[in-house]
Design goal:
The protein is an alpha/beta fold. It has a domain of 178 residues: 3-Layer(aba) Sandwich (Rossmann fold), CATH 3.40.50. A seven-stranded mixed β-sheet has the order 3-2-1-4-5-7-6, with helices on both faces. Bound molecules: S-adenosylmethionine (SAM). S-adenosylmethionine binds next to helix 1 and helix 4.
């Protein structure tokens, strides 16, 4: 990864980007361009695709961050900011939430929600691969439906663990692939047929073909837990929504004496 990949340049037109290696893997500029493109209808699509259940999943992720009044918290790949707003409810006026993302268009939508936040909240540009924050700066760091888009998952997890203080939490909320019928059958039908169809109706078939494919290539819950463990986190996870949603929470271990 070159340092220029971390720069803030605006997204090039999609036609100028190299073709993706496969439908579940996009290079960083392509991921950013895709989210810039879909920012305007991202919230509506989430509600349509999950029948509104996504709000509850984010609430649960915020609970697992175990933050309270006065804490400083980071929401990585914050998108349109809904998980950051959940965290704001928990840290209150004496706390602070930073929601960072590399899609300016997603951040623009997040900022429209900031006045309703129950804590000081800042939505700012940052690449999850090189977070511009000090070691141990936050009581917790969360990522909701963002980790599967990271160009380097290990690096993204290591960065989140780095900026959390010892004893603090790293929470990863992600879609995962259920293995048992009947939900696995329904899931395949929904993600492989219905979601791409909704994407076509919304006018962005590419983005909503990428979604199911990015879920398929994401590590299973056990593998993800092992990756988080390697970042210095004691990890537990819960599966919910019949095994479609995985919530991983890692507690940062104290630094080992050198
Ligand atoms: C599916 S959206 C999730 C948004 C939000 N967290 C939520 O709960 O709905 C994924 C977000 O991850 C962001 N993202 C992906 N890779 C990123 C990176 N390397 N650095 C910062 N943001 C990133 C995208 O721009 C997008 O806003």
């Amino acid at each position: 990864m070159t340092s220029s990949s971390f720069s803030r340049s605006s997204s090039p037109p999609i036609s100028q980007l190299p073709p993706p290696a496969d439908k579940g893997t996009l290079q960083e500029p392509q991921v950013r361009a895709m989210f810039d493109r879909i920012a305007g209808f991202y919230d509506v699509m989430n509600s349509v695709m999950t029948a509104g259940l996504h709000h509850g999943w984010r609430r649960r992720a915020a609970d697992l961050a175990c933050v309270g009044p006065g804490d400083r918290v980071l929401d990585v790949a914050t998108g349109t900011g809904d998980l950051a707003l959940e965290l704001a409810r928990r840290v209150g006026e004496g706390g602070e939430v930073i929601g960072s993302d590399f899609s300016e268009q997603m951040l623009t939508h997040a900022r429209t929600k900031a006045p309703a936040a129950q804590a000081p909240i800042t939505f700012e540009w940052a690449n999850a691969m090189a977070l511009p924050y000090a070691d141990g700066e936050f009581a917790a760091a969360t990522v909701g439906f963002g980790a599967r888009n990271f160009s380097d998952l290990d690096l993204g997890l290591a960065e989140m663990a780095r900026v959390v203080r010892p004893g603090g939490k790293v929470v990863v909320l992600e879609i995962t692939t259920p293995t048992r019928p009947p939900l696995s059958t329904f899931y395949r039908l929904w993600f492989d047929r219905v979601v791409p169809l909704i994407g076509r109706v919304a006018g962005d078939p590419e983005a909503y073909e990428y979604l199911p494919n990015s879920v398929k290539r994401f590590p299973d819950p056990r593998e993800l837990a092992a990756k988080m463990d390697r970042c210095g986190l004691d990890v537990r996870y819960v599966l919910t929504a019949g095994g479609i949603i995985a919530l991983h929470v890692g507690t940062r271990r104290p630094a080992e004496p050198s």
